[in-house]
Design goal:
By secondary structure, the protein is α/β, with parallel strands linked by helices. It folds into two domains: 228 residues, Rossmann fold (3-Layer(aba) Sandwich), CATH 3.40.50.300; 158 residues, 3-Layer(aba) Sandwich (Rossmann fold), CATH 3.40.50. The protein has 17 helices and 14 strands. The strands form two sheets. A seven-stranded parallel β-sheet has the order 3-4-2-5-6-1-7, with helices on both faces. A seven-stranded parallel β-sheet has the order 10-11-9-12-13-8-14, with helices on both faces. It binds adenosine monophosphate. The site of adenosine monophosphate has 14 residues, from helix 4.
Length: 397
C-alpha cells in the first residue's frame, strides 16, 4: 500500500484526493433534506449534489447567512431553492397579501427559471409561490399576490411597483435571496435593492449568490449579511447550461410585434434567427417600419451583400442581425447578450448552435424563443436534447 505512488505525492495532493472522494461519494440523502424534497430530487434524475449544493444546502439549513460565489451552470438554483423549501415547511402558512421568502433576480428569464425550480422541487409540498417581473400585464400578478405567497420570485422594479400599488406587504419576510447580485449591480438595480431592503424586516436569513465577489459586491454584502458562511466553487459550466433560456408562447401573426417589443427593451445588439430566407427578409422590413435597424444574411444574398451586412452589424451601425441557421454557421461575430429565435428550428441541434452565439465573458447570455402552438413538437425535441426545460416567460396575445 505504502508503495502506491499516490501516497508519495505529499499532503496537499492527498487532501485533494480525499476531497474529490468525498464529493464522489456524496449523495443528496446526507444533506439533511426532508423525504418529500428527496423524492422530488430523485424525480429529476440527479443522483449527486453539485459542489455548491453540497456546501450551500447544509449551511442554509443551519439558519445562518450565506454568501456564495457561484456562476450559472453550477446548480446554484437548487442549492438555495431546496433548503428554502425545507425551511418554509410542508404546508403554506401565509396570510393574504404577505410573503415569507423573497428571491430577487436581475432578469425575468432568471426569475422564470428560479420559479420553475420551485415548482419542480416543491411539488410534494403545499406551499404557494409566484413569480413577478416587468414587461407583462400586472393584473394577474396583483391577483396572485392578494392571496399571499410563501415564496415570491421577483425582479426589483416590478416588485416595487406592486408594493406601491399595495398588492403586497413585506412584514412577514424571513428569508431573502439576492441571485446574481453582480449582475443586479451591473444593471443598475442598486437603488431599487436598497429601497426593498429598507422595507423588509431586519431579522431574517440572507443568502447572496454572485458569480464573483468584487469589492463592490462585498460592500453590498456587508450591509446585508451578518457573519455569513462564505462558499466558493469553481464553475462547472458547459455552454448550454450557462445560458439563460426562456420562451414566449405567441401565435405566428403576433410574433413580429413581440419581436419589436423585445428589441426595443434593450440597447444591446441582438441576433435573430429565422428558419427561412424569405422570413428573414420580411423581418428586416418589418423591423425597419418599427424604426429598428436590421440587416439579414442568408443564402440568397450575394457574398458582397453578406459581407456588407455583417460588417454593418460588427461596426454597430445596425442593432439587429437576422440570420438563417446555415448562414449563421460560418460567421465570425462576438458573443452577444441576446439571441432571439423568431421561430423554432426543425433540427434540435440547430437550437444549440443558435444559442451558443450568446454569453459574454464572465456573464451569462440570454436566449429567448418565440414559440407558437404549432411548434410544440420542435420545442419538446429541443428540451429532450438539452435535458432541461426552457423557462416559460408567458403568453403574448
Ligand atoms: P443552475 O446553475 O442552477 O442554473 O443549474 C444549471 C443546470 O444544472 C440546470 O439545468 C439544473 O437542472 C442542473 N442541475 C442542478 N443540480 C444538478 C445535479 N445535482 N446534478 C446534475 N445537474 C444538476
Amino acid at each position: 500500500m505504502l508503495a502506491d505512488p499516490a501516497y508519495r505525492r505529499g499532503a496537499a495532493r492527498r487532501d485533494c484526493v480525499f476531497i474529490f472522494l468525498i464529493e464522489k461519494l456524496m449523495t443528496f440523502d446526507s444533506l439533511g433534506l426532508s423525504d418529500s424534497l428527496l423524492r422530488a430530487v430523485a424525480h429529476t434524475g440527479y443522483t449527486q449534489p453539485t459542489p455548491i449544493q453540497a456546501q450551500a444546502i447544509p449551511a442554509i439549513l443551519a439558519g445562518g447567512d450565506v454568501m456564495a460565489a457561484a456562476q450559472t451552470g453550477t446548480g446554484k438554483t437548487a442549492g438555495f431553492v431546496l433548503p428554502m423549501l425545507q425551511q418554509l415547511g410542508p404546508r403554506t402558512r401565509v396570510s393574504p397579501g404577505r410573503v415569507r421568502a423573497l428571491i430577487l433576480t436581475p432578469t425575468r428569464e432568471l426569475a422564470a427559471q428560479v420559479h420553475d425550480s420551485i415548482l419542480t422541487y416543491g411539488k410534494h409540498q403545499q406551499l404557494k409561490s409566484a413569480v413577478v417581473f416587468g414587461g407583462v400585464n400586472i393584473n394577474p400578478q396583483l391577483r396572485a399576490l392578494k392571496r399571499g405567497v410563501d415564496l415570491l420570485v421577483a425582479t426589483p422594479g416590478r416588485l416595487l411597483d406592486l408594493y406601491q400599488q399595495k398588492a403586497v406587504r413585506f412584514d412577514d419576510i424571513q428569508l431573502l435571496v439576492l441571485d446574481e447580485a453582480d449582475r443586479m449591480l451591473d444593471m443598475g438595480f442598486i437603488r431599487d435593492i436598497r429601497k426593498i431592503l429598507a422595507l423588509i424586516p431586519p431579522k431574517r436569513q440572507n443568502l447572496m449568490f454572485s458569480a464573483t465577489f468584487s469589492a463592490e459586491i462585498r460592500k453590498l454584502a456587508n450591509t446585508i449579511c451578518k457573519n455569513p458562511v462564505e462558499i466558493d466553487v469553481a464553475p462547472r459550466n458547459s455552454t448550454v447550461e450557462a445560458i439563460e433560456q426562456g420562451l414566449w408562447w405567441v401565435e405566428k401573426p403576433l410574433k413580429a410585434d413581440l419581436l419589436s417589443e423585445l428589441i426595443r427593451e434593450t440597447s444591446e445588439q441582438v441576433l435573430v434567427f429565422s428558419r427561412t430566407k424569405h422570413g428573414a427578409n420580411k423581418l428586416v422590413k418589418r423591423l425597419a417600419r418599427d424604426s429598428i435597424t436590421a440587416v439579414a444574411i442568408h443564402g440568397n444574398r450575394s457574398q458582397s451583400q453578406r459581407t456588407k451586412a455583417l460588417q454593418d452589424f460588427k461596426d454597430n451601425k445596425v442593432q439587429v442581425l437576422v440570420a438563417t441557421d446555415i448562414a449563421a454557421r460560418g460567421i465570425d461575430i462576438e458573443l452577444l447578450a441576446l439571441v432571439i429565435n423568431f421561430d423554432m428550428p426543425h433540427v434540435p441541434e440547430d437550437y444549440v448552435h443558435r444559442i451558443g452565439r450568446t454569453g459574454r465573458a464572465g456573464a451569462s447570455g440570454q436566449a429567448v424563443s418565440l414559440v407558437s402552438s404549432e411548434e410544440k413538437k420542435q420545442l419538446k425535441g429541443i428540451e429532450r436534447l438539452i435535458k432541461r426545460q426552457i423557462a416559460d416567460l408567458g403568453s403574448y396575445y
